[in-house]
Amino acid sequence: MPSSTDRILTTHVGSLPRSPRLLEANAARAAGRLDPDEHRALLGEAVADVVRQQVETGIDIVNDGEYGHTSTQSVDYGAWWTYSFDRTGGLEVVDNPALAEPHRSAPGKVELTSFLDRRDFTEFADAYGDPTSGIHLADPDQPPPAFPTATGPLRYTGQDAVAADVAHLKAAAGAAGAHGAFVAALSPGSAARIGNKHYASDEEFVYAWADVLREEYTAILDAGLDLQLDDPSLAESWDQVKPEPAVEDYQKWVQVRVEALNHALRGLPTERVRLHVCWGSWHGPHSTDLPFEHIVDQVLQADVGGYSFEAANVRHEHEWRVWEDRTLPEGKVIVPGVVSHATNVVEHPRLVADRIERFARLVGKENVIASTDCGLGGRIHPQIAWAKLRSLTEGARIASQELWG
């Protein structure tokens, strides 16, 4: 991961707001109304614009806004994951009622229930069902995405798509003079949360995804760009297990996913890889989130150069304390969120600086890169998203002055 000996660097988790023009083009491309070459040219222009905006805002380590992870809606919590469906063979949208049915786990066996059967959703069912509550999961006028099932051996088919991601970002970052650039990609554990009718076990399915996604990771790193692995499954899935499992059982389940991730990264330059962990980007109570302290040791076993995690929203800000009694491995950095995707309130730069300095005192100022909790695109209004990024960079400037003098 890029590091600095004279100031706090800034980045973000990945997703940035899409323009109406890009959303319309994505919808037209999906419906076959826009030529693929025309769409690719328009996408390249959009990436160039969003990279320029990031640099002008003061973001050091930029990305393509995840624009290559196609979204057709202004509110979209899932493009970080669903993009993989179009890049993987062996998947089909089939009649799989098990995906919508509640599942129950047992001692020693962790099994995810359906998404809408989460403990947080059921505990606050009235709030989630009330359009005036401030909770917004998706556009009610849009049909829900069709989640596929693995019906045969998985294989990677996204070579052209990842090549386009890489080409657009490299050109844009070079033109804008960015300090560094990364591409986000799905983790094996998060990929394996779809249906499976082919592989004999959960572990076999996760490792199959590791082998498939390794090709995408390799393409990004071979291009000279940094790689972010998006793995909400490590923390978020806890809420999708009913009844609430023993922490030890869940830790074993997480361990399989960390080991599969390391398998996917074997032999790659992992010092240029960062792992993003979060509790899901939807707006809601999150009262059944797993405390970070229960999985941070498993997260630190991931063979990556940086660890990105939520640290600004009100459910998890107090968890900076996990670093009081843990030693950050040599050569690693942390990438804590210091502004949140979960509120429309724009954080004051002084608060951002305080959050940064708190981590710097615990792990060393050279080992902190300031970031967002999660992706901002599709979660909050574009005007607010960019205001938060400006507050992030201003807070980092204040912290840098106070930490280095």
Number of domains: 1
Mean pLDDT: 94
- CATH C-level: Alpha Beta
How many strands in all? 11
What is the makeup of the main sheet? 8 strands, parallel
Pfam families: Meth_synt_2
Protein name: Epoxyalkane--coenzyme M transferase
Keywords: Transferase
Organism: Xylanimonas oleitrophica
Question: Your description of this structure?
Answer:
38% of the residues lie in helices and 13% in strands. With 405 residues, it is of the alpha/beta class. The protein has one domain (9-404): TIM Barrel. It has an eight-stranded parallel sheet with strand order 1-11-10-9-8-7-5-2. 45% of the residues are buried.
What's the short version?
With 405 residues, the protein is α/β, with parallel strands linked by helices. It has helices spanning 20-30, 36-57, 79-82, 119-123, 125-128, 159-176, 188-191, 202-222, 233-236, 247-265, 296-299, 349-363, 382-404; strands at residues 9-10, 61-62, 88-92, 149-156, 180-186, 195-196, 226-230, 273-277, 306-309, 333-339, 369-372.
Q: Would you spell out the secondary-structure blueprint of this structure?
A:
Elements: E1 9-10, H1 20-30, H2 36-57, E2 61-62, H3 79-82, E3 88-92, H4 119-123, H5 125-128, E4 149-156, H6 159-176, E5 180-186, H7 188-191, E6 195-196, H8 202-222, E7 226-230, H9 233-236, H10 247-265, E8 273-277, H11 296-299, E9 306-309, E10 333-339, H12 349-363, E11 369-372, H13 382-404
Parallel strand pairs: 1-11, 2-5, 4-6, 5-7, 7-8, 8-9, 9-10, 10-11
Antiparallel strand pairs: 3-4
Key features?
405 residues, alpha/beta, TIM Barrel, 13% strand, transferase, zinc ion binding
